Amino acid sequence: MPNLNFYAVDDDWSAVVQAVFDLELFRVFESDSEPGAELREFSEAADVPDSRRGRSLALFVAGSGPEPLASRIDLLPGAGGGATFRYTCEGWGLIQLRYGGPWAEELRWSHTNHNSAKRAAAWAETLPELGDPAAWDWAAVTRASSRLNRAIRRMAVDKIGSRPVLPHAGGFIAHSGLRHEYGTGIHATPVHGMSAR
To answer: Please, which domain of life does this record's source organism belong to (predicted)?
Structure first.
């Protein structure tokens, strides 16, 4: 499952979303709809909301496989603020793009990721509604994912381990005194026995 973990804050995320559209390889969907609403597809970076729903995207490489599925999830009464359902975007070859961002005294990784043909085949019997993984052009998915990851790496001003640090994240890390990387991000305080980066 080719992936890239990287550090980004708000303005960096906007640049990453713009890069997705600039590559002209993807149809862009929200990973999960608002409660009570249909799943949205975005046609340009300005359409992606600056909210939780705009921070988790499903990227469909045009022509790489079957249309993404909008799978309905029924909500428990009261769980969706009065809504009774939401939708999630599904498909074996979709690329996930998720924003981590600041959380308490931590900057969490943002990341890209997608299935491999082998993993999808292993899960195919468990999720028959997603169809046959062999219907996907896995080479096209991997090529597009790699191009997106290279575009994100080119934005970086630093690296922490193998993780690119985008410009505004670099300033945020320095300003917040974040020096201890563990778990899913970088923190201001160490885990017992850990040295600073």
So the answer is: Bacteria
